[in-house]
Amino acid sequence: MCKDAIVFNNEPKGVTLEAWIPYYICTCGKSKGGVFCDGNHEGTGCLPKKTIVEKTKQYHICLCKSSNNFPFCDGTHSFYTDEDVGKGVKL
Questions:
Q1: Which domain holds residue 13?
Q2: DSSP β-bridge partners for residue 23
Q3: Torsion angle defined by CA atoms of residues 87, 71, 11 and 5, in that order, rounded to the nearest 10 degrees
């Protein structure tokens, strides 16, 4: 987790990832759409998370930026309310 990250959303997003393709997942919570890095981390201490999966399928991507299994959802988002969206993550 990045200490400068913000909560993009308090629920995950289902995204189909193709096997053996490198993806760069947003860790800062500032990227448009919240899933893939678009460079909006500039000026923060956050860097995208390079992710490669072994099987093409839908994955639940963490949008609260707090999962212990990041970039995949582990249910941590349930600790965040709607009011927490857009605010700093609770490390």
A1: 1-72
A2: 51
A3: 0
